[in-house]
Structures are given as C-alpha cells and as structure tokens.
Amino acid sequence: MARTVALARWWWTFIVRGVLAILFGVLAFFAPGLGAAVLVGLFAAWVIIDGIGNIIAGVRGRGRDRAWWLEILEGVVGLAAGLIALIFPVYAAGVLVLLIAIWAIVTGVLEVIAAIRLRELISGEVWMGLAGVASILFGVILIAFPAAGALSLVWLISSFAIVFGIFLILLGSRLRGIHELARRGAAPWISPHGGNNQVQAVSE
Length: 204
What we know:
Layout (H helix, E strand, L loop, with lengths): L1 H7 L2 H20 L5 H25 L7 H20 L1 H6 L1 H22 L7 H20 L5 H34 L2 E4 L8 E4 L3
Antiparallel strand pairs: 1-2
C-alpha cells in the first residue's frame, strides 16, 4: 500500500509528460512546412524535458517505487536522443525517422516492463502499458516504411505524440485520484487479481 501511495505522489509528472507530448504533436501537425530542422528541434526539446522529468521521478522514487530504475533508464534514453538531435541537427535531420523510431521502441519496451512491474500496485497501469505498446508499434511502422512521404511521416509522428500524451494524462489522472484519497486518510487497495477496489485507511 505504501508503494502505491508513494507512486501516486508523482501523478503530476505523468500529466506534465502527457501535456508536453500533445503540445509537440499539435505543433508538428499544424506546422509541417517549417522544415526538418524545426521538427528536429521540437522533438529534441520534447524528449529532453521528458527525459529529465523521468530521471527526477526515478531518483525520488528510489526505494519506494519498484520501477524507479526503469524511469531513470527511460529518461537517460530520451535525454540522449534529444542531445544527439541538438548537437548534430544536420545529421539528425537526415536520420530523424530512424532516431525517433529507435527512441520510440526503447521507450515503449521500458513502459511495458514498468507497467507489468506495477500491475500489483495500481489499476491504472493499463494506460502505461497501452502507451508502451503504442510507442513500440509506432517505432516499428517508422522502420518498416522509412521512405513514406515527408508529410505522411509528420502526421504519423504527430498522431503518435498526441495518443501517447493522452495515455500518460489518463494514467496521471488515475494516480491523482489515489493521491487525493491518501491525503484524506484512505487510499484504494488494488487487488493483483482484479475485482472491485476497496478503501482502507492509510496511516500517516
């Protein structure tokens, strides 16, 4: 129970990540004519901020969140991808599709693993799992169709970012509900075997 409450305390990090993902998706969707360099910059800013948020959440959750190291690893991967895009923008523009595909697949795998490890703690882990699956599928599609038209790729990337962001916001909202119950002195007990949630007192 304590681990559930500890994880729920950081509900806002998932919502911030979701909002940033949606913001990136919307900007990329409505501004495809700005060129690859701008898209690289937007992508870099998104994954760097997202990566830093993941690292901070992982460090603060160390010892209380069984998936803390996965959050740090995911953050490092995102931070590395973003820095590569910023430091080598010319090269990144040429391999942008591959860079995003690799980042999406690695991130997706880590999200799915984290969801599996957290399934006994929270019922909202399904949103994390779905975000991971969507990320993996997106990366596979990019690798399978690298020669698709530039406009199609921009729309695909935008759509993924928006869907990914929605899943993260839904997960954050679920965790926020658990956190609010804990602040009032009770929190939902999540059965690892499913079933209805119950409410039990949480000692201060």
